[in-house]
Specification:
InterPro entries: FkbM_mtfrase, SAM-dependent_MTases_sf
Helix content: 25-40%
GO molecular function, one term: methyltransferase activity
Strand order of the largest sheet: 5-4-3-9-10-12-11
Domain Methyltransferase FkbM: 75-207
CATH superfamily: Vaccinia Virus protein VP39
Number of strands: 12
Protein name: FkbM family methyltransferase
Keywords: Methyltransferase, Transferase
Structural class: alpha/beta
CATH topology: Rossmann fold
C-alpha cells in the first residue's frame, strides 16, 4: 500500500507510485516513463519475488531504476531486514538516493559502485552491457565485487542491468558459497544467454525463464493506454539445487 500519496498540484516535483513517492526524473528510459504514467515499473517482477522475500531477509540489488523496486523490497524485508542497492552511474545514483530518502527507508544501504570481477575504476563504455550508451554518456565509475561488500546475510541477488550477470557472479563466488541466495536477473540477449545460464548451473543452481510484460493492465494509476505493446523482459530466476523453489517444468532452462 502507498501511504505517502500527495496531490500532484501540491508538489509537481513528486510522483505518487504504488510503493511510495518518487522524485520527477527525465523521461528518457522505460522505467521513468512507466513510473510517471503508471506509478510502477515492471510490476510482474515483483509479483514473482513477492512469494520469495520475507521479513528479515537481506537483498542485494544491482541497478537503481530510480528505486522503483527498492521501495517495495524495503517494505518486504521490514525493519529487521536490509536492502543493499548498488548503482554506479552518478546521476542515477543521486536520483535513486533521493527517492530512498523521501520515503525514509532506513533499512536501505546504497553503494555508488559497479559490481563486477574486481575492485578499481573503469570507464562505463568499457563495462558489460554498454551502460554508457544507456545513461547518455561515458564516465569513470568505481568498481567492486560482491564479495568485497562482506554482507552479513544474503537471500536474493536482483540484477537489473542486462549483460552484467556473468561478471557480477565472477566476483561473488565466496558470497554465493556462503549464503546460497536466490538470483533474479534480466538477461543480456541471444549472444550471452547460453553463457549466463551455464555460469548459474556451474554454481549449482537450477534456472527458470521468467518473461514479464512491461505493461500491467492492473497498474497503480489505472491508466489503460499501453506504451509498451508486446514488450517483455527476458529474465531468469535461479535457485540453489538444494532449495525447494519450483516453477512450471516447461519454464526450466
Amino acid at each position: 500500500m502507498n501511504n505517502k500519496t500527495i496531490g500532484t498540484d501540491q508538489n509537481p516535483r513528486l510522483w505518487n507510485t504504488r510503493y511510495g513517492l518518487a522524485a520527477v526524473v527525465p523521461l528518457d528510459c522505460p522505467a521513468s516513463r512507466s513510473l510517471q504514467l503508471y506509478g510502477e515499473w515492471a510490476e510482474q517482477e515483483i509479483d514473482l519475488l513477492s512469494g520469495l522475500i520475507q521479513d528479515g531477509h537481506s537483498v542485494l540489488e544491482f541497478g537503481g531504476d530510480f528505486g522503483a523496486h527498492t521501495l517495495w523490497l524495503a517494505q518486504a524485508v521490514g525493519e529487521r531486514g536490509q536492502v543493499h542497492l548498488a548503482e554506479p552511474r552518478r546521476l542515477l545514483f543521486q536520483q535513486t538516493c533521493a527517492n530512498i530518502a523521501i520515503n525514509g527507508l532506513t533499512n536501505v544501504y546504497t553503494h555508488a559502485r559497479w559490481l563486477g570481477r574486481s575492485k578499481g575504476q573503469s570507464a562505463l563504455s568499457s563495462l558489460p552491457g554498454n551502460p554508457a550508451r544507456k545513461s547518455g554518456g561515458d564516465e569513470i565509475v568505481n568498481t567492486l565485487t560482491v564479495d568485497d561488500l562482506e554482507l552479513d546475510a544474503l537471500h536474493l541477488i536482483k540484477v537489473n542491468l542486462p549483460g552484467t550477470l556473468i561478471d557480477l557472479l565472477a566476483g561473488a563466488a565466496e558470497t554465493i558459497r556462503k549464503y546460497r541466495p536466490m538470483i533474479y536477473a534480466r538477461m543480456a540477449g541471444l549472444e550471452l544467454a547460453e553463457a549466463e545460464i551455464q555460469v548459474l548451473k556451474d554454481l549449482g543452481y537450477r534456472c527458470w525463464s521468467h518473461v514479464p510484460y512491461l505493461y500491467n493492465s492492473d497498474n497503480y494509476t489505472e491508466h489503460t493506454g499501453n506504451i509498451f505493446p508486446g514488450c517483455v523482459s527476458q529474465n531468469v530466476i535461479a535457485s540453489p539445487v538444494e532449495g525447494r523453489f519450483e516453477l512450471e517444468a516447461r519454464h526450466e532452462l
